[in-house]
Amino acid sequence: MIKKKFGFVSISGRTNVGKSTLINSLLGxxxxxxxxxxxxxxxxxxxxxxxxxxxxVLLDTPGFHTGYKRALNKYMNKLxxxxxxxxxxxxxxxxxxxxxxxxKNTLKRLKDINKPIILAINKIDRLENKNELxxxxxxxxxxxxxxxxxxxxxxxxxNLEDLLVAxxxxxxxxxxxxxxxxVTEFSENFFISEIIREKAINRLGDELPYRLNVGIxxxxxxxxxxxxxxxxxxxxSSQKGIILGKQxxxxxxxxxxxxxxxxxxxxxxxxxxxxxxxxxxxxNNINLMSKFGYGxxx
Length: 298
Description:
Blueprint: E1 5-12, H1 19-27, E2 45-50, E3 54-60, H2 71-86, E4 89-95, H3 101-113, E5 117-122, H4 133-141, E6 148-151, H5 160-169, E7 172-173, H6 188-201, E8 213-222, E9 225-234, H7 237-244, H8 249-266, E10 269-278, H9 286-291
Helix pairs in contact: 6-8
């Protein structure tokens, strides 16, 4: 009889180091949105990776928001802290060249949690000379007694098997907690809203993405066609104008991009109807945040 292992694993690291890409590559399916913009992750994206001898539950943890006082930022900080308390193991993802102050701050927080930490040095596919890798690994290894140090490319799926072997070593022997065919705990509605939010975030300026939310109003399914009515929620009329764009050009571009990806992921024809609504200062209103699904940790 095969001895089974199980554990919750947090994916940690600063913006744009490839955390969501790593989760999607490990699962072979997109469940976490990707963006170069900071503070993209607002929920613990639960991905479940099961094989014959192990079940690994992956959490894409929101980063800590220092210097922000809005209720949404406080929610995300509490969510991150709660996530670290629950996990058995942490994968700390870093860029192969960049060890910045944010990495120092994150590692300090992770040390205080007192959980095994695997260091994943990402984006090694961008190294012009592979001989550069060894000194990079040696330098970073000196910063902490990591459970393992694994160079990877999340995008190219390089060395992910080595990473999985390292993860399994730190898992405990216990039965699986989820059905073996489970990939995520989130609903189709949530997945659709996140794809739309990703496309909006990636087309907008640096500030507006953190003032918007996406809500699914209605989904109708007929033979080979899914009709989706969704609202992009912002905090002011001026923000609404930015989302709409000149003669509706921006919302049309967001809708087209989201529709194409949804058709690819869901393998169905998609009729996507997007609307923009104003909900004043929702990111600092606990009642409105709860309505949008962000309030339980406040």
